[in-house]
Amino acid sequence: MRKLLALFAVTAFLVAACTPASPTTGASPAPQATATEQATDADITLSGPVQVTLWHNQSGALAKGFEEMIKEFNSSNGKGVTVKPEFQGNYTQIYQKMLGAIQAGTVPEGVVAVENQVADYARAGIIVEMDPYINSKKNGLSPESLKDIYQPYIDSNRYPQYGDRILSFPFIKSLEVMMVNEDLLKELGYSAHPKTWAEFEEMSRKAKVVGADGKVTRWGWAGMGSEAFLAGVLTRGGSILKSPTEVGFGGAEGLEMLQMYDRCIKEEFCYVPKGFDWQDRFGEGNLLFATGTSTGRPFIKAAFKKPINWSLFGMPTNGTAPSRTIQFGGVIAITRSTPEKQLAVWEFLKWFTDAKQTAKWSVLSSYMPVRASALEDAALKAHWAGPDVQGAQAFALVPTSAAGPSIRGWQEVRDAIFEAITKVQTKKEAPDTSLATATRKANDSLKENQ
Question: What is the distance between the alpha carbons of residues 334 and 171, in angstroms, rounded to a whole number?
Answer without folding.
Answer: 12
